[in-house]
Amino acid sequence: MASIGVHEEGTASAGIAAAAPAERKPMGMLGFLACLLQYMRPYRGKFALVFLGLLAEMAVNALVPLSFKVLIDRAIPERDGAVFAWVILGLVAGALLFALGGLARDYLYAELTGQLLSDIRRRVFDHLQKLSLGFYTRTEMGEILARFSTDLAAVDNAIASATWGILPSFDLALTVVLLFLLDWRLALVAMLIWPLVLVGPRILAPRAGRASYSKKEGEAGTITLVQENVGAQSVVKAYGLEASQIAAFGGRNWDLRGRSARLGFLNALIERTANLGILVLQILIMAVGVRMVLAGEMTVGTLTAFQALFITLSYALYNVAQYAPNLIQAAGGMHRIEELLSVAPQVTDRPGAGELPRIAREIAFKEVRFGYSDRQPVLRDVDVTIPSGAFVAFVGASGSGKSTLISLLMRFYDPTSGAVLADGRDLRDVTQASLRSHLGVVFQENFLFNTTLRENIRLGRTQASDAEVVEAARAAEIEEFILGLPDGFDTLAGERGGRLSGGQRQRIAIARAILRDPSVLVLDEATSALDAATEAAINETIARIARSRTLISVTHRLSSVVHADRIYLLDAGKVIESGRHEELLAREGAYARLWRKQTGFVLAHDRGDARVEPERLRSIRLLERLDVAALHELAPRFASENFARDRTIVREGDPGDKLYIIVRGTVEVARSDPESGRERRIATLQDGDYFGEIALIGNTPRTASVRTLTDCLCLSLPRGQFLDLLDRLPDLKTEIVQEAELRARGLAAGEHASA
């Protein structure tokens, strides 16, 4: 098999925490409240009204205990009906005030809490739009989604139930004042003992805060695993990974169970210790108060009012203790939200960055070096100039760095050294928005939003009229198809454009790029995932619409760029050859070898099959010794096989019985990791590559699995057909068998990635 390595242009790290500034410890309850105050500032007037409502409720709550003193010490002993009537009238008036004022406060507070959560949610989403592409290559999607689900839900719960914690807190303050007014001696006893009630929560709260943060981390990891599993069901089923996935989820779920149990127990301890302290304090106050009444130092009415107020204080303490776990969980969630908000974009507009006019002269890469990490550079001293109006192509194997050039041109990243220039201006000196307004991009996988086809096209220029959208669709040759749909341009594209074929999605993306009217049209493997007929049709459309624009094509398929004004061949991040197609072929260098690898096939577009030319088979090492007659006899024995995307062609450990040549498409070669049991990609193969050659000689097990990354057209040769030919060539058979045995031993030792 052709030995092709895999280069990853961005690896996942530990997540958002790795990108955020370091913080010594998770946010505590006071930290959460301080953070929340920052979000409350724009609404301080409305919150002041809510606070006044709380004060009114506190006053009403204090009326009932205080009325006991008046009733017991005056109205009842003196049988004073007037005092009794005034007390009852005051209580009724207070109840009405409590009911009407409470409803108004509840409505206003519900409105404010909804606004607060909306502001936090919007701030997080807005910040995500500012973060550079590198953040998304490092961060798992579940880590981001958890901020909007479990983390924000914890904050929401704490804010929504704040009246159960805030109102009792104010009740505590007012009740303490009233206790001192009733009897300062007994109140002083309560205040001296009261700190003991808070000892347990004080000790346990920091631990609970760390446990809450840990639980949130576990929830995010679980969400990531579930999301990854749901999105990879075709791979799971194709590779028979159900058992290993269940085991992986079981381990993650068990870990989350432990974290949840620890947090739950710590929260329960906080409540338990607070409640125990409150109970002890109630008994103590009752004992001291009764002793003072017996000694004639306090009236029965005062003790009754004091005890009633102290019960109110106890309930307030109890409610605060009950609310504390909500605050702890919200603090963990808010810490993770603020952690995300503290991540700074890698690519930003410099102060004073100017607007870039329409690109009129050239784009230039000047001694550009770049790496996604410090350890492995992806581009090395790239020096390329692209004149305005030219058709330029960057070609090379997977991982050669060609798509990274486009990322630098789009300013998804900035060069480590050197510069990318547009009409002589460093792209770092112009705004990102003005740069990208002049670029139209068609990717290999173009994302369509689950909205109408009209709106998906209009994304190219959001202020475009309906007529301009239709004109762009006509230019992309998709208008007729759209009008043939029942809902026409109002047809929903489906999730990720799932209601359309690959070619239709590409044409929608082309229409979107046309509507933008860019000076530079960029194609990043735009047709590599399409069948030959669709690719040819779309290439004709692109050639027509690009006549008045600079066209930059990034592709591994050389047949689509033979008419380019200049072709740059990249290998390991360096431009190793450049020139026109004919010039590069004449040099007989790396480009010519790559061209020969991808040619030698005859495609039948109407049938979706192919055949291989006999001489093309000499590029396969085990077949290079066959003479012309044998090659002509062998070539017709190759059969066409079409494989859909995400399809397993061969599975590791299965018996090997065929050689495969990839005519069109991309596959990954993966091996299972003995330690983790998970698949690990070891190579990516594309047009002209082959795998399984050792299977032609012996029925050896496959040493790796091969799965399609795009729709693929392959040619396959069964082992029986090949051995039948060799039986008539005994001398050659001996040489080939010896060669195959040597290759097999090398592969077993890890010399090459093979299937």
Supply database-style keywords:
755 residues, alpha+beta, ABC transporter transmembrane region fold, Rossmann fold, Jelly Rolls, 3 domains, 6-stranded mixed β-sheet, 24 helices, 54% helix, 14% strand, disordered N terminus, disordered C terminus
How would you characterize the overall build of this protein?
With 755 residues, the chain is α+β, with helices and mostly antiparallel strands. It folds into three domains: 24-341, ABC transporter transmembrane region fold (Up-down Bundle), CATH 1.20.1560.10; 362-583, Rossmann fold; 601-748, Jelly Rolls. It has 24 helices and 20 strands. The protein has a six-stranded mixed sheet with strand order 6-7-8-3-9-10, sandwiched between helices. β4 (417-422) and β5 (425-426) form a beta hairpin. The longest helix is centred in the middle third of the chain and has 53 residues, at 242-294. It is elongated, with a radius of gyration of 37 Å. The relative contact order is 0.08.
- The CATH architecture of the largest domain would be Up-down Bundle
Low-confidence stretches: 1-14, 749-754
- Structural class designation: alpha+beta
Q: Give the biggest beta sheet.
A: 6 strands, mixed
First-to-last CA distance: 8 Å
CATH topology of the largest domain: ABC transporter transmembrane region fold
**Outline type:** elongated
Structure summarized in a few sentences:
By secondary structure, this protein is an alpha+beta fold. The strands form 5 sheets. It has a 6-stranded mixed β-sheet, with helices on both faces.
